[in-house]
Amino acid sequence: MKVLILLDMNGTLILDSKVFFKCKLHPKKIGKKIVYLRPNYDSLLEKLLAHPKITVALYSSMILRNLIVNAREMLKSNKLVEQKSKLNILFDRTYNIHDPEGKHKHDTMRDLNLVWKDPMLEGEFGPTNTIMIDDDMHKVRNYKENAIVIYAFTKEHLINRKPNNHYYMEALGDYLVNLVDDYKDDIRIRLKEKPFQPDICKYYTPDPYLN
After folding, report:
1. Rounded to an integer, what distance in angstroms lies between the CA atom of residue 173 and that of residue 153?
2. Are β-strands 3-7 and 54-59 bridged in parallel, bridged antiparallel, or unpaired?
3. Per-domain residue ranges for the chain?
4. Per the omega criterion (within 30 degrees of 0), is the bond before 206 cis?
5. pLDDT tens digits for the chain (211 residues)?
6. Dist. CA 40–CA 108, nearest whole Å
7. What is the pTM (predicted TM-score) of this model?
8. Per DSSP, which regions of 11-126 are E strands?
9. SS3 of residue 188 by DSSP
10. How far is Cα 200 from Cα 102, in angstroms, rounded to an integer?
11. Residue 144: C-alpha distances to residues 90, 94, 102, 183, 192 (Å)
């Protein structure tokens, strides 16, 4: 059985900004937005998209139009030339629900039931074979057993050149591949038994992309 891996966008794979930051990572200008791609995000996607037991989808609170243009920009990476056709499942803002505890009226949280019911997935996925990757526990709080909450990609990383996102994305990719390889009946059990624990010492070294 395959495993569905749902990847968040802003704060996880990209940093969506209204301003330019003084740093060595060149942003992409997408409409009125300035978008920084997380160092080594493409290595993570490359590993996941190449795995025969993994189905990758983007899951965001963005509206569909913005999600599409950001996804297209990410897929321009040379590392993803052979795999980009596999990243064709996008779950936008309509697959989220209103967050009653949010600070703003537009705040949302994830609703995996909306994802699992979608015809694009052909009924293949449910609680036992789905993983969400997000930087915000509040958004995924109703599905903690299916979630991996990672450190966010922030402007401080760009300005201070730390921590090492290049290493972090590599470690996350290796972890997910190994997790899926060992998976048998319920991915939630594996997530609980073997949580994502990157080497913190390596994480807090300077990122080679920003040196």
Report:
1. 16
2. parallel
3. 3-210
4. no
5. 899 999 999 999 999 988 888 888 888 888 778 999 999 999 999 999 999 999 999 999 999 999 999 999 999 999 998 888 999 999 999 999 987 876 777 889 999 999 999 999 999 999 999 999 999 999 999 999 999 999 999 999 888 888 999 999 999 999 999 999 999 899 999 999 999 999 999 999 999 888 7
6. 27
7. 0.96
8. 14-17, 28-30, 33-37, 54-59, 90-91, 96-98, 108-110
9. helix
10. 30
11. 21, 21, 18, 18, 10
Q: Which two tokens stand for residue 89?
A: 């499942």
CATH number of the structural domain 3-210: 3.40.50.1000
Q: How many CB atoms lie within 10 A of CB 40?
A: 23
What distance separates the 2 farthest-apart alpha carbons in the chain?
Answer: 48
